[in-house]
Specification:
alpha+beta, 3-stranded antiparallel beta sheet, 2 helices, 11 strands
Length: 151
Amino acid sequence: MQKRLLAAAVAALIPAAAWAECYPFEVHASIEENQWSVIWQNDEPYAISEMYQNVKLPLYPQAPVTPQLLYFDRPITDRPNVAVLRYYAGSPGTSVLVPIVEQVVFDLADAGKEVLRGAYIENCDRVDWEWTQETVAVGDPGMGYQKSTLP
């Protein structure tokens, strides 16, 4: 009986250990370099930047947390207005918490108009994003496969 209880306790700790390995997520220097921060308006969080003052990106937490900005980049040399912002969106769940990092692809030249949004990490597993010179696509575990044309 004690062996069964011990085995059940160890099994219950394994998801928590996996959760601890990928959280907290590391904040990349690009967030501070580009002066990104989170503001709240009407109880909703947004990402803003002192460097890109025309951009105000809505952030969608997956749990009751303040989103944590993690990474900013302009990934395509030929398209300098295409940008990505990653943020920790929370860890929803009941018996097992599932940490989620979301990625937003947006247009710097069009007031931060969203091109595509989806999971970047879910439950410590990286989600595959496909980039070409013309498109971006993601197989989001919650939203399914999405593909958009880049501006």
